[in-house]
Design brief:
Blueprint lengths: L10 H22 L3 E2 L7 E2 L1 H5 L1 E7 L2 E8 L3 H7 L5 E4 L2 E4 L16 H29 L10
């Protein structure tokens, strides 16, 4: 049995793993995006919302510190089930305008669900990097510890 030193994750590897996770989740969000029928195009469907899903990564001190997803504004209206005479009160969608045709609008959790499903994997990636970082810092100061026998 060989004594192997564990391989610690580097900043570059951490950033690469976070970017991979982000791209994976972005793909799932895009595939989950509602497809709306555009009246002006007849029976064609619009995939504008799915195509608009983008991500941005913010770096601090060389490591990814923030993930941000962006998409067309109307995506939030689908998400909450509101718009054109419909508002959200608590967890219910309420019709407010009498002139609006009666449609059953319901919330459609199309992006939060994908982020929630992947959070444990992102937590594992983050834990691996910051746990290794903390261990490196402790090991770099180990020769400064003084143990006294009392």
């Amino acid at each position: 049995m060989q004594n192997q030193t564990p391989k610690l994750i580097t900043e570059a590897e951490f950033n690469l793993k976070v970017r991979g996770w982000t791209i994976n989740v972005r793909g799932r969000i895009s595939s989950n995006a509602p497809i709306s029928a555009e009246k002006q195009w007849g029976k064609r469907t619009s995939k504008k919302l799915a195509q608009s899903v983008m991500y941005r990564l913010k770096m601090e001190f060389g490591a990814t510190s923030r993930i941000r997803y962006e998409f067309e504004r109307h995506g939030i209206f689908y998400h909450y089930g509101v718009g054109r005479g419909y508002i959200r009160e608590g967890n219910a969608v309420v019709r407010t305008a009498k002139s609006v045709s009666a449609k059953n609008r319901t919330p459609n959790d199309w992006f939060d669900v994908e982020i929630r499903q992947g959070l444990n994997q992102l937590a594992d990636i983050t834990q691996e990097f910051y746990g290794d970082l903390a261990m490196k810092q402790v090991l770099s100061k180990i020769d400064k510890f003084l143990i006294q026998k009392t």
